[in-house]
């Protein structure tokens, strides 16, 4: 589960449409523009992202870092650690 403080960074990224890269503990990486947060049908925490012009829900389980792909005043990289 993501903490409130961690969730704030996800919301900031969505609000300002800051292009980001999400990295998982298994080495997966997704780059795109975050649009919204929510839950899928399995009640997993997700981030709606524009990835290459396509919108997709990205499950946030076990991700460890969010990196801004453009300079901004809010964050450069946020480390989350593995989510269980």
How are the strands of the biggest sheet laid out side by side? 4-3-2-1-5-6
Distance between the amino and carboxyl termini: 6 Å
Strand content: over 45%
Number of helices: 1
- Can you identify the CATH class? Mainly Beta
- Helix- and strand-based class? mainly beta
For the record, the count of structural domains works out to 1
- Assembly status: single chain
**What is the residue-averaged pLDDT?**
92
> How is the biggest beta sheet arranged?
6 strands, antiparallel
Which CATH-level-2 architecture? Roll
Shape: globular
Supply Rg.
12 Å
Number of strand elements? 6
Low-confidence stretches: none
Helix content: 10-25%
Protein name: Transcriptional antiterminator, Rof
InterPro entries: ROF, Rof-like_sf, Rof/RNase_P-like
Organism: Halopseudomonas litoralis
Structure write-up:
It comes from Halopseudomonas litoralis. This is Transcriptional antiterminator, Rof. Pfam families: ROF. The protein is built from one helix and six strands. It has 84 residues and is mainly β. The protein has a single domain (4-79), classed as SH3 type barrels (Roll). It has a six-stranded antiparallel beta sheet. A hairpin with a 4-residue loop joins β1 (20-24) and β2 (29-39).
Q: What is the structure about, briefly put?
A:
It contains one helix and six strands.
Give a quick set of tags describing it.
84 residues; mainly beta; SH3 type barrels; 6-stranded antiparallel β-sheet; 1 helix; 14% helix; 45% strand; Rof-like_sf; ROF
Topology (SSEs and partners):
Elements: H1 4-15, E1 20-24, E2 29-39, E3 45-51, E4 54-59, E5 63-68, E6 77-79
